[in-house]
Write the structure tokens for this entry.
Amino acid sequence: MSASPPEAAGGAAAPSRAGAGLAPLLPLAIALAALGAAVLIPNLYSDPNGLDPYGLRMSAVALALLGVTVAVPQLAPWRRVFVSLVIITVAWSAFLGAPDLLSHLGVPETGDQANLYASAAWCGATALILGLSWLALRRDRPALRLRHLGRGALWVALGGTVLFLLAVMLIPASLLGREGLPVIAVERDAPWLVPANLLQGLAQELQFRGLLLGSLEKLTTPRRANAAQAVVFGLAHLAIVYQGPIAPFVPITMVLGFLLGLATQRTRSLWPAIIIHGIADVAATLGVLPGLYGY
């Protein structure tokens, strides 16, 4: 049974023609500029890690922006999107702060254990804030697409994972700047790295292809909504993950974000993106890049 064109493309009703242009995305551009300033300005004066090791400045800016949408009635339609930015930034702060908190509580941990605990905090904070916002939004909830996992979605998940791994194998070693991944011992590290990568992939898909994409689809066309979330996905990695020679991978991250969003829209399910993201992260961390490039 075929769906109507808007639902087939994005899993949500299409916005009106007035909301189909780029102008409705201006508040998002302003928010990204404010978050970018929060990241970059401390770099001009001091060591940002020493100044704010938990990324709290980004979380504070995102919360302030959400407060503006609450205070200004005209920005009410953007509340869902700004909740997404709060989830992205606060969950990242939870990831950065969890190891120190557990250390203060006397929990023993190695580097890999700390990464797993931090990833659990990242995913847990995402789920907690998402659940609270879901209760608050009520009738104004965006489509998270978590209820559907059909045969077509499973085929997309399998095909997308295979294509990702094949694409990674074609990346020249020189582009990785020899900083991509450290050498790991699979038997020693896999019990910690595998669940950590799966939790990180789940958290990011809930944030970007879940709430953010679903919220943007209520404001603009499915295609523009997908492109916008992919840009945010790439910039978030630039701010919190990529450094030095691997910063040029941000455009690749945006493309991957766009493709994962497209898979989400076409299958009307978030599960293919979750599966592809999780398996790809595990494979890359445990074997693909170290084996190919001799790390």
Observations:
- Residues 5-293 form one domain.
- The two ends are 50 Å apart (CA to CA).
- DSSP finds eleven helices and no strands in the chain.
